[in-house]
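Priority: medium. Attachment 1 of 2:
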C-alpha cells in the first residue's frame, strides 16, 4: 500500500510541476529586424525567476550596440505575488549605462 501511495504521490507532483518557459521575440521596423529578445520563466522551489534580455541586431547593431537585461525573483502564495528582487542592466557596447 505504501508503494502505491508513493507512486501516486510522485505521479501527481510530476504532472503538476511547473515547466520552464522560454519565448523569443523579434523587433522590426518596416520589415527590418533591429532587435531580438529572449524571455524566460522558471521555478526553483517556491521562488519564480523571470528574465528578459534584449539586444540590437542586424543593421541596428552596427549603428548602436545596445543590450538591456531585466530580472525578477518573486513568490506566489495565497496572499498573491510577492516581489523578492528586481534589477535592470543597460549596456552600450561593453560599457554599463544604467544599473537599477
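Attachment 2 of 2:
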Amino acid at each position: 500500500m505504501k508503494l502505491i501511495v508513493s507512486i501516486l504521490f510522485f505521479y501527481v507532483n510530476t504532472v503538476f510541476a511547473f515547466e520552464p518557459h522560454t519565448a523569443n521575440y523579434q523587433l522590426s521596423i518596416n520589415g527590418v529586424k533591429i532587435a531580438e529578445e529572449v524571455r524566460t520563466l522558471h521555478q526553483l522551489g517556491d521562488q519564480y525567476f523571470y528574465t528578459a534580455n534584449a539586444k540590437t541586431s542586424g543593421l541596428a547593431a552596427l549603428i548602436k550596440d545596445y543590450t538591456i537585461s531585466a530580472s525578477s525573483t518573486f513568490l506566489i502564495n495565497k496572499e498573491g505575488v510577492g516581489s523578492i528582487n528586481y534589477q535592470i542592466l543597460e549596456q552600450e557596447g561593453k560599457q554599463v549605462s544604467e544599473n537599477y
